[in-house]
C-alpha cells in the first residue's frame, strides 16, 4: 500500500472528490469528530468513498492541512477536536433561543449578514454588542 504521509499526495487524493462533497466534509470536520465526518464522506459514491479510507489512515491533522491547502484561500478549515468545548458552548447558546429566533438568525445569515454580527445580534448583549 502506498504511504500517504506526503501532503501533496493527500491533496491529489482530495482533488478526486467533488467540490460539493469536499465542502460538506469541511463543514463536518468542524461540527463532529473526525470519524463521524469520514462516515459522511464515505456515504458518497465514487472517489469520495475510496478517499475516505486513505484519509482515515493518515489522521485528522494531516487531512486538515491537505484540505486547507486545496481549498485555500477561500475557506478556512476547522477541526472539531480542537474546538470541541467552544462547539458545546455554541450549541448550548443556540438551544437557549426560541425556534423563531433561530429561524430569524438563519435567515439573516442566508441574506448575507456576517456570521459574527448575526451572533452578536441574537446572542450578545442588548443592542447587539
Question: How many beta-strand segments?
Answer: 0
C-alpha termini separation: 54 Å
Radius of gyration: 17 Å
Taken in chain order, the helices and strands follow as: HHHHHHHH
* Beta-strand percent range: under 5%
Which bin fits the share of residues in helices?
55-70%
**Tally of DSSP helical segments:** 8
Q: Which ranges are low-confidence, i.e. pLDDT below 50, for 5 or more consecutive residues? A: none
Q: Report mean pLDDT, rounded to a whole number.
A: 85
**Class from secondary-structure proportions:** mainly alpha
> Outline, from the CA principal axes?
elongated
Task: Give the biggest sheet.
Answer: none
Descriptive notes:
- It contains eight helices and no strands.
- It has helices at 7-15, 19-31, 34-42, 47-58, 60-71, 84-95, 99-110, 115-123.
- By secondary structure, it is mostly helical.
- Helix 2 runs antiparallel to helix 3 (34-42) and helix 3 (34-42) runs antiparallel to helix 4.
- The chain is elongated, with a radius of gyration of 17 Å.
SSE diagram, text form:
Layout: H1 7-15, H2 19-31, H3 34-42, H4 47-58, H5 60-71, H6 84-95, H7 99-110, H8 115-123
